[in-house]
Amino acid sequence: MNNEELRDKRRDFLKTSALVAGGVMMNQFAFAGGHSSTDDTIKIALIGCGDRGTGAAFQALSTKQNIKLVAMADAFQDRMDNSYKVLSDKFKDKVDVPVERRFVGFDGYQKAIALADVVLLVTPPGFRPTHFEEAVKQGKHVFMEKPVAVDAPGVRKVLAAAELAKKKKLNVVVGLQRRYQANYRETLKRIQDGAIGEVMSGQVYWNSGGVWVKKRQPQQTEMEYQMRNWYYFNWLCGDHIVEQHVHNIDIANWVKNAYPVSVQGTGSRAWRTGKDYGEIYDNHAVELTYADGAVIYSQCRHFEGIANRVDETFQGTKGRTYLSAGNNGVLWDLKGKELFSHPTKGNANPYQTEHDELFAAIAKGDYKFADAERGAKSCFTAIIGRYATYSGQTIKWDEALQADNSLMPDQLSWTANPKLMPDANGLYPIPTPGKSKII
Fold first, then answer.
1. In this protein, which residues make up the domain named Gfo/Idh/MocA-like oxidoreductase N-terminal (predicted)?
2. How many Å from the N-terminal Cα to the C-terminal Cα in the chain?
3. How many CB atoms lie within 10 A of CB 173?
4. What are phi and psi of 212, to 5 degrees?
5. How crowded is residue 328: how many other Cβ atoms within 10 Å of its Cβ?
6. 212 DSSP 8-state letter
7. What percent of the chain has pLDDT over 70?
8. I need a surface site. Which of 86, 168, 248, 436 has the fewest CB within 10 A?
9. What pLDDT sits at residue 2?
10. Would you state the pLDDT for residue 437?
């Protein structure tokens, strides 16, 4: 296939993706968002202009494809301005976002999505289900960061949109980047080929010192404060077991090629106890039980001064394995003999690989990536881990998935209040096992 034929295939692919949903023609608004240029430029829109959003756009623009950033959206003007400056300074010829295509506010995402072929969804995760649903409705290919939801209703919305994305043949990549990291891919390939037998137990960890805190400013409404300090509120973040530890939990599901049928565990606030830390716990320890009886232990905590650990290890009937983003993927037999080791030295950056592979597929007119369903299910594994630690109960997957417990505010505006509000001392209600109603 020559270059001109390849361009024609990609144009047809983008146009068809934007127009057709299971054989039904989309409306004219969706058509306006489809690829209609006469060149081979892939137009992207950035939804969420914080540090991770700016990083995702940086990686997209660093691919070998002919890509142009044409629209941006964020709730905050200052985040938009900073992101635009960083990206336009670095990629002068690839950033074409005049003021009229920089949308600020809660509804700007719809306008930005309409202008692109591919959208990058990188807001705080509470907004992800609605943004993903809209992107699929408009017929756009998607890169979306993890996690993809913070509660059961959000997961259901993502799963429904994922099915529609498959029908439309829209490529969707989720930012669980270990799936795109060579030492994980090569080691998992051997595990799934039976190198260590049936995996019956394992341990996955994200133990670290925690992340940033945004102090409350005098002029802020409660909505703005929570959105600025989003990591500490479940409607925005989902707690760090969801926002961060989902990476390791996703590896457990990948190794098992399944999702747990039930989860039980414990957690608390032992170190982060002040009002700056919203409602979330600083430690979770849960057991993931799979249909075949396998149990995988999951632990995450945010304590300062602790021994950090971020990795995964699993035990099978014929051997064991160790995995880490920064270390070799290794397999041993039951006697400790090394069967395989894949070094991390020289591996491509998986954050970049996600975008390289996504945009290469789109440029070729190929339908290759359907990450949304497994991304949603690994995310939900972490969510029911939170349900278990907050409630003190054993949480069954099927029952939890039907829960009507949306955390999202009834109204999104700067003067509206989120569902969770502080008391007179500025402290937020903390979930109490045995007392709090979670589902």
1. 42-174
2. 54
3. 27
4. -65, 165
5. 16
6. -
7. 91
8. 436
9. 54
10. 86
Distance between CA atoms of residues 145 and 127, nearest Å: 11
Contacts of 350 (CB under 8 A, 6+ apart): 177, 178, 179, 180, 181, 182, 325
- Strand, helix or coil at 74? strand
Q: How far is CA 20 from the centre of its chain?
A: 26
Which residues pair with residue 213 across a beta bridge? none
Q: What is the DSSP string of 267-331?
A: EE-SS--SGGGTT--SEEEEEEE-TTS-EEEEEEEE-TT---EEEEEEEESSEEEEEETTEEEEE
What's the pLDDT at 5? 53
State how far the Cα of 251 lies from the Cα of 245, in Å rounded to an integer: 10
Other C-beta atoms within 10 Å of 107: how many? 11
Q: Is the distance from CB of 418 to CB of 235 less than 8 angstroms?
A: yes
CA distance 372 to 325: 22
Q: What is the pLDDT of residues 343-399, one digit of tens each?
A: 888 889 999 999 999 999 999 999 999 999 999 999 999 999 999 999 999 999 999
Residues in the chain: 439
Angle at 312 between CA 311 and CA 317, to 5 degrees: 160
**CB atoms near residue 118 (< 10 Å):** 27
pTM higher than 0.70 for the full model? Answer: yes
User: Tokens at residue 136, please?
Assistant: 């699929």
Identity of the amino acid at 281:
Y
Going by their DSSP bridges, the two strands 283-289 and 295-302 should be labelled as antiparallel
Span 159-208, pLDDT tens digits: 999 999 999 999 999 999 999 999 999 999 999 999 999 999 999 999 99
What residues contact 113, with CB distance under 8 A and at least 6 apart? 33, 45, 47, 71, 119, 131, 134, 135, 138, 140
C-alpha–C-alpha distance, residues 350 and 224, integer Å: 33
Residue indicated by tokens 């395989």: 340
Q: Count other Cβ atoms within 10 Å, centred on residue 38.
A: 7
Q: How far apart are CA 335 and CA 40, in angstroms?
A: 55
